[in-house]
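Morning, I've got a small favour to ask if you have a moment. I've been staring at a protein lately and its backbone has me curious. You're getting the sequence in one-letter code plus the fold written as tokens. I've dropped the whole record in just underneath, so have a look:
=====
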Amino acid sequence: MARSLLTGTRIRERRTAQGLRQADVARTAGISPAYLNLIEHNRRRVSEDLLLRLAQALGLDLEGLSDGAEGALFDGLREAASAQGVRGVHAEIDRIEEYVGRFPGWAGVLAERQARIAALERTVEGFSERMAQDPFLSTALHEVLSAVTSLRSTAAILVENDSIDAEWRARFHRTIHEESMRLSDTAEALVGYLDTLDEAESGLSSPQEEVEAWLATHDFHLAALEGPRAPDPETLTAGVAELASSAARTLAAGHIARAHADALALPLKPFLRALAEDGPDPARLAARFGAPLARVFRRLASLPPEAGLPSVGLVICDGSGSFTFRRPMPGFALPRFGAGCPLWPLYESLGRQMQPIRAVIELAARVPQRFLTYAICQPSLPSAFDAPQVLEAVMLILPAPTERGPVERPVGVSCRICPRIACPARREPSIVT
């Protein structure tokens, strides 16, 4: 598809027409919100692979980013048909053009309602996840409840006791004043935090997110790491807008050191030749280079776009299940806070150290999607008799084979937004059913 200088404008037009936030589209496409903002203002060129990922994130095909409003209308009606799952609807999808031609007004209303429903569902899911697991919101709400409880208790004492002497009455008044100020300050900070999220459409709330946003601007491939000489982390991270905090720069330096070690052990040109011959089979690549599976996973997720590898995702967690690295994949959402679905092979591998796991999973969604996953857990530090064992689990995510196999594992993103009610691993009720 031809890409003109106004491709970014069309992307923004399609996104705003569907009521999508930059942060949501960027996360699904595997890039940072800041980079998507540059694209939408036509300040960055878009590769064919990235354009495809953006189209998928918007629920469109490539032509959907070049067609006019009618093309977007067709896509909206297809989404409405797929979402409802009504018998016979799928058999009439090929008659969408006829329907639009005969009833353009009703077609527009239906597509608009579907876009509105999808936007509201994403909003509810996002706020639910944030309310449940955002550390700032949790602390702020705790402060609000604490201040309100203190105010009610103090006021009750003053109301119910008329014989309190002047000194104690003054203390209670001072307490009410102090707690009122604390409540006011906390509420102001909370409102300011939420307003900032609405205005910026994204918030990098942790050093890890800053590092991932920086890597996303490079498609998770740093060309400077392919040489034999160890790169200077300060040179690579100096002046980078995404790495705003010193903690993020420290994490970036650690990532650079590890990625460079992976590049030395699995040189780019030989690795690409092996990939062309063996395909993205981690076991065969690991045996060919004599490398640990986890290293092969990381290398596959850090190849340049010209490697021709399909979309790939990578998740790393420690022994507690907390994410330490995330490379999202189109269609496979990764929770921003907290842990993911307990049925992911990533977590299963924590209990099966050094045992490779391969599983085809089906992700619960309005339109379920399938992925091929590989997982492995291994000690990240040498164990000793008197030292604790430090574990690290890695999960590689690839597109699923076109043919359906006999073993497919139903999973979700996280329990709070998963529609699988009868899941045996559910830890809290879902809000989307």
